Amino acid sequence: MPPGAAPTPVRPAPTPQPLGAVARRRGPRTELLAPFVLVAPAVLIIVGLRLWPLVLGINFSFTGDGDRNGMPVGLDNYVTLLGDPLFRTALRNVGLLVLLLPVAVAIPGLLATFIYLRTPGHRVYRAVYFFPAVLSPVIVGAIFNLLLAYDGPFNEVLAVVGLGPVDWLGDPDVAIFAVAGVHVWATFGMALVVFLAGFANLDPSLLDAARVDGASLPQSIRHVIVPGLTRTIQFVFVTTMIGLLTSMFGLLFVMTGGGPEASTYLPEYYIWVQQGQFNQPALASAASTALFLIMLLVGLAQIGVLRRAGREG
């Protein structure tokens, strides 16, 4: 620096700002948009692969088949459904399955309770109970066709105890219950896993307090476990109902083919018959729409009843 020159002032280095300050300077708009950006891919997939096909199917149900293909026909397809004995049988079977639904939910719930309470052999039981869930419905149906045959092992056991043989798959009054029972056996492993996940959020001190107060196992289940698992039970009820109404096609096709005397028809099997065998896609769309409405109404009714029971409990 030459003599007499003023010294050059030294500027201090800028202090690095924390990340939080940088984010705040960008404003709240980024924070508001971030959740929507993250959710957008899932929403697009749901809309594109679920909701839009559903809207198209509902719209297609108001068109005709055959000579009236693509022509608007109003409610003619729904009138045809109500007048079809096969579809009325399918609706009757839906009512039977809804009545069986509490049993289908109670079985995995009780088994999960025994596993949670660490009954002897609970580790082995957990693997054994879940194993059927990984089997194909075709394999399960083929196995139970042999077990439930008129001269099969089940009837041999009944003959030993003096109850006589039962035509499990050939009696129109029994076949739907046999197929539903096989479906529950093959699928309740998933509900069992959901119940065990619900037990992970249950406060164990509540059960300990119930034991100290001298509560029995049924009393503990009614007053501690059921209220603590209300949301889990609601979820299992809805998913089990959806499975009963939309996931039994494989078993029906292999075990009964809709028979005997069309007694095991369900809406999904009826839809396949109309679309795949009779080439009536518009009528099949109407049946699909009816099935969707049935599941929606039954699901909402179940949630309402369970919520009311939880508040009263």
TrEMBL record:
Pfam families: BPD_transp_1 (PF00528)
Keyword Repeat part of the UniProt annotation: no
Broad class of the protein's primary localization: membrane
Chain ranges passing through the membrane: 32-52, 94-117, 129-150, 174-197, 235-255, 282-306
PROSITE patterns on file: ABC_TM1 (PS50928)
Family: Belongs to the binding-protein-dependent transport system permease family.
UniProt name for this protein: Multiple sugar transport system permease protein
